[in-house]
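Anyone opening a protein record will find just a pair of labelled lines. With that in mind, the following record should read easily:
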Amino acid sequence: MEDLLALEERLDVQFADYGLLRRALTHRSYLNENPDADLKDNERLEFLGDAVLDFVVGAYLYQRFPEMDEGGLTTLRAALVRTKTLAEFGRQLGIGGCLRLGYGEEESGGRNRAPTLCAAFEAVIGAIYLDQGLDAVQPLVERLAAPALERIMDQSLHKDAKSEFQMWAQAAFNVTPHYEVVSEEGPDHEKTFTVRALVGQHVWGVGRGQNKQAAAQAAATVALLKATVEEAEQPGAL
């Protein structure tokens, strides 16, 4: 309970139902190893928190940049709600130290793994929303997002490979790229995904990563390199 109270203080949220916060911090691996525990894992709260974050971050950006077009807002939102950024929010709040993990997940470094922290942060947001509503979620998200947004814009981190490849493909073919998961390998706590980037039915790049988003970014990076080479070989041609 002390851990929950300390986290609650860092969140600056007073929970009415601590069961929601406990659930947000319960990883599936814990229940797999403790089947008799009267608990549920955080995956449904993660789903809800993901949707809430999309809305709150979108509204925040809409108000902050009244002159920015839809494409710019979408790119900034993607940078703020991607796994790496949300995992960092989780670290700032000390969520990793509060997680209930199974032994295998604990031993493999689950408390510091970006996908696990990201999922837990989303679940905590879902729990806050159910317990206190958007009025409690909004100030927390904006407090975390403001400095992250400054860093993203200063370092152009929002201009990721997927965004750059999308701009190129739309200019060249008037088509938006799409991404397909080719395979998933390895145990649940250490999966490797293979994703390919396509324009229409044509494969432009294949990438691998520890989550689908990272693999898609890797595929887009390969696709951008291929696009650059083809343009260099055929000046003036798309």
